[in-house]
Specification:
By secondary structure, the chain is an alpha/beta fold. The protein contains 5 helices and 7 strands.
């Protein structure tokens, strides 16, 4: 909540900038920070649509005393920009906007249709966007999708990442008895739920680091080494 107004100001800056580029822009409210959706469809229905994902929220600035320059004032040192979000994800979001601006300035239009989805809660799990997706799926429909939220191995060498790892979260509750058991009487005799969890977690991978869950790799297509 401390930075809520700053987040809203950032979202509004994006809205204003995208409108100047000729995009149609919508602000989708959430229980937290809004999602910015922008579309450019002047290329026509016979051209493909490219959806680009970014986020404008960042990690906290703590510990603030370890910063050598104000975290929200971009500072150039030895040819590199230092600021909170310069790498994740304000930097990538800004150079996407600059690339689109350059194309429009040089040619007067874009060769394909472009959609942008820029959310404000990626760093805390994307709860707002997740709830919006079912009702906004038609507007977000596209032929191609790029998540511009990764770095480059070399500053002057373009890179395209073909896949990234996802995450699944769940809560596991293990109960060993109906009542509390005193460790002095039952410790080492009754199977402790903590030990059950340790055994369960350890069984998920084998000694080579492979996932041991049956069927886990069923639909995985291995990429060739060459």
């Amino acid at each position: 909540q401390e930075y809520r107004q700053a987040m809203l100001d950032c979202a509004q800056w994006l809205v204003d900038y995208l409108k100047k580029l000729g995009f149609e822009v919508e602000t989708w409210p959430t229980d937290g920070h809004p999602v910015i959706f922008a579309s450019y469809s002047k290329a026509g229905p016979d051209k493909p649509t490219f959806l680009i994902y970014n986020h404008y929220d960042v990690q906290p600035v703590d510990p603030i005393n370890e910063w050598h320059s104000p975290p929200f004032e971009p500072t150039l040192r030895k040819g590199e920009v230092y600021a909170r979000g310069a790498q994740d994800n304000k930097g990538q979001c800004f150079y996407v906007l600059q690339a689109l601006k350059l194309l429009i300035d040089q040619t007067g239009s874009l060769p394909i249709n472009i959609k942008l989805c820029i959310e404000g809660e990626e760093e805390i799990g994307s709860a707002g966007l997740s709830r919006l997706l079912p009702q906004k799926k038609e507007k977000l429909k596209a032929d191609y999708l790029a998540i511009v939220d990764l770095g480059l191995r070399k500053a002057k060498v373009p890179a395209l990442t073909l896949g990234i790892r996802g995450i699944i979260t769940l809560d596991v509750e293990v109960q060993g008895s109906k009542t509390d058991l005193h460790s002095g009487s039952h410790g080492g005799i009754a199977f402790n739920p903590i030990h059950a969890l340790v055994k369960l977690l350890a069984s998920l991978r084998n000694d080579q680091g492979q996932v041991a869950v049956p069927g886990f790799y069923k639909d995985v297509i291995e990429m060739p080494l060459e």
